[in-house]
Automatic annotation (TrEMBL):
<keyword id="KW-0378">Hydrolase</keyword>
<dbReference type="InterPro" id="IPR006357">
    <property type="entry name" value="HAD-SF_hydro_IIA"/>
</dbReference>
<dbReference type="Pfam" id="PF13344">
    <property type="entry name" value="Hydrolase_6"/>
</dbReference>
<dbReference type="InterPro" id="IPR006439">
    <property type="entry name" value="HAD-SF_hydro_IA"/>
</dbReference>
<protein>
    <submittedName>
        <fullName>HAD-IIA family hydrolase</fullName>
    </submittedName>
</protein>
<dbReference type="InterPro" id="IPR036412">
    <property type="entry name" value="HAD-like_sf"/>
</dbReference>
<dbReference type="Pfam" id="PF13242">
    <property type="entry name" value="Hydrolase_like"/>
</dbReference>
<dbReference type="GO" id="GO:0016787">
    <property type="term" value="F:hydrolase activity"/>
</dbReference>
<dbReference type="InterPro" id="IPR023214">
    <property type="entry name" value="HAD_sf"/>
</dbReference>
């Protein structure tokens, strides 16, 4: 009997909650991904976690036993960095040091909190060092007309001890303080899925993720088949094409 994997040439695979939890591998996930590679299936990893640079993600995946080039990883942080850096813009970043590095590599000029008043754009991302000083700096930038962007709107992300606050929680404070809505770059916006698909070089591509509100909704917006794993309950308006317990289910008989 053919497996679900047999019906596709490539996969856009989420990381948190699909491949790992807190960078501890989910049982069976690494073996399933190795088998997809053995069968000649293309895989691009797409994550809304903006804390890490793509090179750091590949290093972590190597630590899990997966050989993955940086070009096969798309993060909401990297995609947002490319967008806000357009034209060599001056950017005030609420986010990790690695995200600031991504903005610099993309050609943007990263501003300190003291320089935020001269920012062309503000980029908001989840990170554990968020504080009131960053919020004040964003207010100064916004007051002077800086455009507001966010890597994504996820309220939380999964960890083994339960959900942790993510970009959306921080963004809510910034949007409230500035009185306007940010342009979000990450999932479920279709553009980031289109970027990921382009890296696979065509063919029949499916999205694999554990969240109906980001992975499934975003895949549908991009016109791609969707596969929900991990036990989440599909929402009526964003029902996936397939529901599986885990990544290994891609390889089993239909």
């Amino acid at each position: 009997m053919p497996s679900i994997a047999d019906g596709f040439d490539g996969f856009i695979v989420d990381l948190d909650g699909v491949v790992h939890l807190g960078w501890e591998p989910i049982p069976g996930a690494v073996d399933a991904l190795r088998e997809l590679d053995r069968r000649g299936k293309g895989v691009v990893y797409l994550t809304n976690d903006p804390q890490f640079a793509r090179t750091a993600i590949t290093a972590k995946l190597t630590g899990l036993g997966l050989e993955v080039p940086a070009e096969s990883v798309v993060t909401s942080g990297w995609a947002a960095a490319v967008k806000v850096s357009d034209g060599g813009a001056a950017v005030y970043v609420i986010g990790s040091e690695e995200l600031r590095s991504e903005v610099t590599l993309a050609g943007g000029r990263v501003l300190s909190a003291a320089e935020a008043g001269s920012a062309d754009r503000i980029l908001v991302a989840g990170h554990t060092g968020f504080d009131y000083d960053e919020l004040r700096a964003a207010c100064r930038a916004g007051e002077n007309g800086a455009e507001l962007y966010a890597t994504n709107r996820d309220a939380t992300f999964p960890m083994r001890d339960g959900p942790w606050p993510a970009t959306g929680a921080i963004l809510a404070a910034v949007e409230t303080a500035l009185g306007r809505t940010a342009t979000s770059v990450g999932k479920p916006e279709p553009e980031i899925f289109e970027v990921a698909k382009s890296l696979l070089g065509g063919g029949n591509v499916a999205v694999v993720g554990d969240r109906p509100d980001t992975d499934v909704l975003g895949g549908r917006r991009a016109g791609l088949p969707t596969i929900l794993v991990g036990g989440a309950t599909p929402a009526d308006l964003v029902r996936p094409d397939h529901v599986l317990p885990d990544l290994a289910g891609l390889l089993g008989d239909r």
